[in-house]
Structure formats: structure tokens, C-alpha cells
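Render this sequence as a predicted structure.
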Amino acid sequence: MSEPAAASSATPLRELATLFLKLGTIAFGGPAAHVAMMEDEVVRRRGWLTREAFLDYLGATNLIPGPNSTELAIHIGRERGGWPGLLVAGACFILPAALIVTALAWVYVRFGSLPAAEAVLYGVKPVVIAIVLRALWGLGATAIKTPALGALSVAGVAAVALGVHELLVLGSAALIMASQQLISGARGPQAAVPVLFGTGQMIGDSTRAVVGTLASAAAFSLWPMFWIFLKIGAVLFGSGYVLLAFLRAGLVERLGWLTQQQLLDAIAVGQVTPGPVFTTATFIGYLLGRGPGAVVATVGIFLPAFAFVGLSGFLVPRIRRSRVAGAALDGVNAASLALMAVVSWQLGRSAIVDPVTAGLSILTMGLLLRFRLNSAWLILGGALVGLAHG
């Protein structure tokens, strides 16, 4: 089993900056799409990481709080450029989205509404679905190395589809595969189903407990806002919908800093702009404190991701060298692909809505399979088709 490394020479910081600035500018579609684009650029095009190493880092991001795709960018930067690379890759992936969201927040504050983006998203979404499916196919061929891992991945899809918490699915997959290595005659992945469908109440209770500690003052100022977003970034697992729950409890219900409509608009901006969904914090920061507020909120919510990756990144090669820990990581990788598959299905239902979007998705898949096209051009083409259709 290979370790998380590829070429022996380091990547120049300028190359890291150029790649992740580009990805941060074009990466529409949420974390699953971001992962797909990074796999295309880092594994298939540049060969900076092996597919096995990429999967290991992807699995590692699912075990720590924070924005998964941003943490994957930080992992790649650390692997290819050390500590400077960690900072450059993460910052460059976040920066374009933060600037775009700040500009939209300025428009929102000045005019009281958001510019229409439906036409662009109409064409971009089906293209993103094809990119994600292409990445899933390649990553799945590497991750699903045994029938046991295949069965575990299927069980993970079923569990997530039925509402089991993502962290419980990942942890169960790790325990099951590690147990197979430790216990002779273990029943294997068939034991996954009762474990995966176990109680998620404990995780829900702990989430509510954390939400309850997010706020302690009613008057707005920058430092309390910084600590609120720092705490959210340090504990948040899950999707943008989980982020919505945290923000609503802290900023709408407890502090009264935002209205319900402002919060929904902030979440919408995070969803329709490229880059990390966590730039929702940038929008809220601007609403509450203009330019300084946008900076403080952005730094607060993303800072824990850099710390977690910096502390955990060096462990990934050591985990892979251990037979038991490596098996656990294999389980996490298989479950991570299950999460991506469920997200792809959910996104696909909202993206492919008529013959035009279906044709766009099929055409994109054909181009990806036949040619090694850069995903940026495909997304641009989808946006143009969307504008023309609108």
C-alpha cells in the first residue's frame, strides 16, 4: 500500500497559488464538486499525488471538523509545499470566494436584494454533476479494493440516505474494517448494517449543546463575532444545512444580530458562489460590520481548518503504515465515497430538470471520457448555455 506521497520534489508555491486561485474561482457545486475538480487537477493532470494518497487525505478531512474541500486543499498544499504550501493553498482556495461574496454583500446592503444567478446555475449544475460522477468512478476503482469495502460502501449509501449522521457512518466504517484485521473469523461488512443504523442521538445532543454555548452577549462587536465563528469552525461537521442550524441558533435566536431572511440570503450566497460554502460567514460579517466584519468572520470560521490539518496531516502516512489503522482508513475512504454518491444524487435531482440539462450532463460526461478537458472550460461552457437559455 502506497503512502500519501507522489513526486519527491516539492511544488513551487507559485504553482500552488495559481492552481488553487483558479479552483477557488470556478469551483461551483459544493464540496463533492470541489473534490472532483481537485482530483482531476492534482492526480490526473499533474501527478502531484497518487490516487491512493488523495483518497487517504480525503478520508482524513472527513474525520475532523470544518469545510472538507478547503481542508483537502490545505492537505495538498502541505504535502507539496510544506508549511508555506499549507498556508498558500488554503488561502488561495478561500480568497476568490471571499472576494466574490464580499462584493455580493455590498450589492445586497446597497440595493436590498441579490443579483439573479438562476440562469448561470441552470447551465453550471448539470456540468458539475458530470464532473463529480467522473471523479467518483475513478476514485471508486481505487478505494473499493475488496468485496468487503464494496459492501461497506453500499451500506454507507443506505445509511446516509436514511438520515444517519455522516460522522457515525464514517466512524462505524473505520471500526468495522479495523475489527476485521484484529479479530479472526469476523463476519465482515454484513455486520455494518446494524452498526451504521445505530443511534445518532448522542451526536445530535452534543451538537445542540455546542450551539447553546455560541453566544453570550446581545450587543454586536467584532471580537464576540470572531469567537462565534471560530467556535463554529472548530466543531462543525456536516453540510451547509448543519451550518444553517448553528447560525440560526446563535445569530438569529440568541443574539438577534440577523433576521431570518438575512440568514437565508447569506446561506443562498454561499451556495451559489464558487468555493467553500463557509464563505457564508463572509457575507454575514459584512452585513454586521462591513469590510472589517467580513475579514474577521472569514478568518474566524476558517482558522480551525488550518490548525486541524497542520496538527493531523503528518499522521496520515503513519496511519497507512499500520495494518489495523490502514484498514480503518480504507473503511473511511469507502464511506467517504458513499457520502459523495448520496450528495451527487441529491444535487442531480435539482440540477437535471429537463431535456436541456440532461443533454448538458451527458455531453459533459462524453467529453470527459473522450478528452482530457479542463473542468474550467466545461463550467464556462455550461454557464454560457445557461445564460443563452435564460
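Summary. The longest helix spans residues 68-111. Residues 151-198 form one domain.
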